Known about the structure:
The protein is an all-beta fold and 192 residues long. The chain has one domain: Lipocalin (Beta Barrel). 0% of the residues lie in helices and 69% in strands. It contains no helices and ten strands. It has a ten-stranded antiparallel beta sheet with strand order 1-2-3-4-5-6-7-8-9-10, with no helix packed on it. The protein is flat.
Amino acid sequence: MFLCLPLFARENSSLANSSGVTASTRNEVTGIASHLLPWKNYFYAGLSNFLQSSVQGIHLQSTVGAGIGRYFKNSNRATIVVVGGLGWQNVQYNQNTVGAGTQNLATSLIAGEVRLFRFNKTSLRFTGLLMPILSEPGRVKYSMNSSYDIKITGNLSWNVSFYGNWQNQPPPHFQGSDYGTSSGLSWTFGMK
């Protein structure tokens, strides 16, 4: 999830496999749209997120939300953004697990992003989403993504990233967390 761009979509996917255990998959797609308000550094934003996690037994988790945000810092070296609002989440759990079903949840949301960068060299990005569930008081969900990119040469960069999803009251027989890390190379092309 990236909040500082007016319109953005991001997808990430992971597949983990070790001998003797079942392979785990995680796929996530996030879209953000925002528009500046007349007041300095304020904007409104809408977000959508779709998640599949075999570790947490989630077949499809669909989240939509909207809120008001503020840029606390927006310079050529750092961006710090916070958004507060309301959302709705539909979670479809895998049917082969005992107690599986579908949940519809009304949520409040607090989202934030910190980006630190040196132009054309490195960038560090951290995004987080805290969702207290209004329809089930006491239940809280949290997700985050972070990445660090280093430009090697020209359009070639190396990156390392960390992702995670947590909830304090998962349904019975389901995992409350799914997290991991990855590293890779990226090639930038097209218009800059």
